[in-house]
Every structure is written in C-alpha cells, then in structure tokens.
Amino acid sequence: MRVSNTDVSDNRIAYILAQLNSGLRTQWSQIEEADSQLQRLLDDAHALANPHVSEAERAEWDQAWAGLRQTLDTIRALGKETRQLFAAEGSSDPLRPWSNLLDYEDDLQEAISHIGEIGNRSIPAHEKEGWDELLTSLELRSAALQAQALTVRFQLELHQKYGEQRANAFSKEIAARLPEEATLANVDEHVGEYCKAVKEYETERETFGGAWDVLKSLLLIPIKTPEERTREKAKRSLKG
Length: 240
Known about the structure:
Blueprint: H1 10-24, H2 29-49, H3 55-88, H4 95-122, H5 128-176, H6 191-203, H7 205-208, H8 211-219, H9 226-239
Helix pairs in contact: 1-5, 1-6, 2-5, 3-4, 4-5, 5-8
C-alpha cells in the first residue's frame, strides 16, 4: 500500500514523524525521568486547581483524576512488562505489551484535556496564567512520552525483524533524513520537510528494506493529532 496524502494527511505525517524524530534522539534511560516530570506537573496541576473546583463539578473532577491515575498505572505496568520481556529475550514478545501501551497513550492525552477543561472553568483570573503554563507543559510532556512510546515500538519491530545491529543501522539512516532542529513544539514549521522525508523513504525503499514497511505502519496508527483532539473537543462543547 502506498502512503500518500489520500491515505494520510500532511499534518498526520508530520506529527507522527515528529514524535519518531524526538524519540530517536532520546535514550531509553530518559523515559523514566520524563515520567517523573509528568507526575510532578500533574501534582502541581491538581494542587493549583483543586481548591477552586465547584461542588457542581466536584464529582466529575474527582472521577477525571481517578481515570487519569488508573491510565497512568496501566501504562507503567505495561512498560515494566515490556522491559522484563525484552531482557528475557528467547521466545518472549515485548512488542505485545508495548503495542497495548500505545493504545493507552491517547487515553492519557484525553484525560489531561478533560482535566484542563474543568480547570479552565474553575481557576480564578489571577491564577489563569500559571494554570495555562501548567497545561502547556503537561501537553508537551505527555506528547514527549507518546513519542518515546511510538519510537520504542518502531525499534522493537525492527529488532524482531532484523536483529539489533541492522535495526540500529536502519534507525540511524531514518533519523538522518529528519530535521534535526525540529521539536514537538514546532511541528507546523517542518511539515514540508517531514513529507519530503516520507517521499524519500518510499522512493529509496530498497535502502531501508522492510524498515519502510514498519515506518509506513506507524503513519497509520490511530494516534490523534493535536488538530484532531481540538476538533473533538469543539464537538463535545457544542453537544454540551
């Protein structure tokens, strides 16, 4: 199957490749630190907004936080299982729990957005600036974790198909075609470069071997882009 603008929008290509780009430049050891940073931001967000939530929204607020914590616990458990299976090698399949983990990453983004919506209605004007900064940091940190999760899946699939040495070589070759100065915060500025990279990967698929097929499958993973989440949020507001 050919990946084209008919199958995948330019924004989706850029968003998924930006996550892969970020993840390929991140070490495994940094994932736990990123998770700790996310937890600190969540603690700060709860402490800031919790005293201002009205009684009318208290049940929804508490339920949203309970759901978020449950999602995080599930993600962390699947991550632990992946590392254990990867270390065991042999007949173990670390890709299975890690693929399941990716399914929960969107749930985490949705939970953070829901908490943000309630907080936006609750935070007094004099604390709004600090709340907005917290939300932005949370969304970026969550996106960074999703990028690392996506990249680990990509590398695990390559590792399964080709072994560690060839998988590492493919990863380096792919990363070399991606814009080095791009970050998850400025994806829109590099849409053209990401789309150009995809065309190069497809044109030179012989260079990448089956790695092109693995990369192509990433572009079709149903991860919601920021634009898609914004549209869904607007629809929910209209229904409300």
